[in-house]
Amino acid sequence: MVTARDVDVIVEFAPADGAPIGTALADASATAIVQGMPVRRFGSYAGMRHYPGWWWSSTNKDLVGYESLLERDRLLVADFDPAVKGIASQPFGITGLVSGSERRHVPDYLLVGTDDPTVVDVKPARLLDRPEVSEIMEWTATVIAQRGWRYEIWSGEDPRLLENLRFLAQGRRSQVDEEALCALRESGLVGLSLKATLARAMRQGAASPGLLRAALLRLLWLQEWVIDLSVPLTHEAIISQIEEPA
Q1: pLDDT digits (tens, 9 = 90+) for 31-40
Q2: Phi, psi dihedrals of residue 142, rounded to the nearest 5°
Q3: What's this model's pTM, rounded to 2 decimal places?
């Protein structure tokens, strides 16, 4: 068992406009880190078993990297979460001594927002029992708790929710027809289905069906209209809550 007394930790991160910085754990700023650059790069090559890439984040209004499809799913969930205001991939490295031996780890993500900063490691559930994995996760959890931040090991989400979010993610970009948005906002009512709401907006003739559908995805992504995402997403989904535009 790793205890707080066992660790003396340095946090290394890369500001967007300067050389890498090393600082004591207690002095680490989540805001400065999330505004910086990834501390390491990840490449791609023929035959690799992972699927790295870039996710366009509506939270950051920029690309955020991922090293696997599982990491991409965690990005999707974070991007949909209104409490998350900033996302950093490969945000920092932590280095410390544990019983006389140096230990180093680079977490997958840092999330900042309305709650305490959250450090996330994404690992498939099948790997969590491996000693080399469980030891580094336990150490990281201790280190992050010392700083007063949250630590999360993420191995997946309900498949139905993920499937629905992947569809709604079409609405994460902001280029949506304003007349279509206004028509939908005027037509939407709690207890009304998406199909019925679209039909009401179409009767106004303010925008084409295609523009209205794109605006609908935008409202659902922004969670101005709340629906049940634990069941298959169809036009029969009922609006359970309507929020004022941010």
Answers
A1: 999 999 999 8
A2: -65, -45
A3: 0.90
